[in-house]
Amino acid sequence: MVEAVLIDLFSLPDNLQNNIQGLVHNALETIEKCSSIHAPSVYVMCCQRQGSERKGEQEFLFPDLRGFQSLKRRLEVVCAQTTAAALYTIKQKLDEKDLSIIKVILPTLRKGLMKVYIDHLFTAVYQFEFEELQVVSDCENLQVSEPQHEGQRLPSQDVALIQSEIQMYLESLPSLKGELTILRSSLIPDDIFLHGFTTRTGGISYIPTLSSCNLFSSCKRRDPQVVVKENLRRLANAAGFNPEAFHRVKIDHANAVCIMGKTEPDNYDGIVTNQKGVTLAAPGADCIPVLFADPVRRACGAAHSGWKGTLLGVSMATVNAMVSEYGCNMKDILVVLGPSVGPCCYKLPHESAKEFHRIDPKCVRLFDSANPYIDIRRATRILLERGGILPENIQDDSITDQNQNITFCTACHPDKFYSHFRDGTNFGTQIGFISIKA
C-alpha cells in the first residue's frame, strides 16, 4: 500500500511550464479517484528560482482546491532551488511520519535523474515506484510508463553533477544538537598520535535516534551514506585528519585483524597500521571502540569489541598483530577503551554470561538470574593484562581521576551517545579513531 505520493514538477519541459496547474489538477484528480494510489500524504516538488521568494506556493499552484477536499489536509508543496534540497526536505517530512512506500509521479525524462537522487539520499528502508505525469486525468491513463532507453545508465558526468549538488546542499546545512565534541585520552601522547572518540552532537542527521553526528549507514537505517559522509567530513575538519585516508573496520563480531597495506579481509573487527596520516576507526553504539598506540615503534590500531568479540579476544588479536607486524613490545602498547555500555545497564542471557563468569566472576553481577549484568570492559582489561599489556597502560572506567574518564556508559547518557541497547534497531553510531601524525 502506497504511503505517500510525490509529484515532481521540478524541471518540466518548456512546453509544459505554462500548464503546471492543469498537470497538477489531473494528477491530483487521479490520486483522489484511484484507490490503488490512495496515500495519507501528497507532496508536490517544484523549483524556486533564485531571487524569488514567492509566498503561498500552494495557493499559486492550486487556486481552487474545493474539488479535492480529501487531499487538502494531506497536501504539501515543497519549493527549493535544487532537486537535492527539495527531495531532502521531503525525506524529512516522510521520516517525521515514518513513511517508507512512495509513489513518484514525474515526467518521463526525469526518471533516470530522480533514481540517482533517490539512490544517494535514501536507503533500502524505502520503496519507490514510478508513474508518468499525464495530462489526461482518466484513471486508466495514469499507467506506469518506462522512459526511453530504460536500463541505460545516466552519463557519468550527469551522475557527478548530481553528487556535487547533493554534497554542496548537505555542506550548507547547520549542525544539530550543539557543537561537534571529541573526547580524548591523556594516556595517548598527542605529539605522536591524533585520536579521539566522537559523541552524538555536531552533525546533520535529524532522525531522533540518529541525531546528529551518526557515523554509520546501513540498508536497515534511514540515514543514507551521503549524510554519514558529511558528518565524517565535519569530524575530519574538527579533528584534523584526511577523510579520504579513513579506514573503518568491517564488523563481523569476531577477532580477525586487517593489516593496512596487505590483502584486506572481507570482514574484520581490528585494524592496525604504521603508516603516517592514515586514520583507523572502530564504531561503537554499546560495543567498545578500543584504540591502541605504541609511541616507541610508532604504530597504532583500532578494534570493535562487542560481547562476542570480547570473548573471542579481538583486543589481544589486535595487539598481537602490532607485535608481529611492526615489532612492537607488549609493554609499550597503550590501550584506551571508549564509550560503551556499562555493567550498570548491559544484560545477557545466562548461557552467554557463563563465558564471562569463566573469565572472572567479577565480570558478572546477579549471575544466578536469567539475564545477568555483564561487564565487557572488565573482561577486556583482564584479557589484555593476561596477554601482557601493563595494567597502567590500559585506560577504562576504572580510572581513579573521574575527570579523566572517557569510558562513559552509552546507555546512561542519551544526550551524549548512541545506544543500540537503549534506542532499538534504528540506532546511531559513534566511533573511536586514531592516526600517526605526519
UniProtKB/TrEMBL annotation:
One GO-annotated biological process of the protein: innate immune response
Coiled coil feature spans: none
InterPro entries membership: Cu_polyphenol_OxRdtase, Cu_polyphenol_OxRdtase_sf, Cytotoxic_necrot_fac-like_cat
Signal peptide: none
Keyword field contains Thylakoid: no
GO MF: copper ion binding; hydrolase activity; S-methyl-5-thioadenosine phosphorylase activity
Keyword Cytoplasm included in the entry's annotation: yes
Gene3D superfamilies, A to Z: CNF1/YfiH-like putative cysteine hydrolases (3.60.140.10)
Reaction catalysis annotation: adenosine + phosphate = alpha-D-ribose 1-phosphate + adenine; guanosine + phosphate = alpha-D-ribose 1-phosphate + guanine; inosine + phosphate = alpha-D-ribose 1-phosphate + hypoxanthine; S-methyl-5'-thioadenosine + phosphate = 5-(methylsulfanyl)-alpha-D-ribose 1-phosphate + adenine
Keywords: Acetylation, Cytoplasm, Endoplasmic reticulum, Hydrolase, Immunity, Inflammatory response, Innate immunity, Metal-binding, Nucleus, Peroxisome, Phosphoprotein, Transferase, Zinc
CDD domains given in the database record: YfiH
EC number(s) on file: 2.4.2.1, 2.4.2.28, 3.5.4.4
Stated family: Belongs to the purine nucleoside phosphorylase YfiH/LACC1 family.
The protein's name in its UniProt record: Purine nucleoside phosphorylase LACC1
Annotated gene: Lacc1
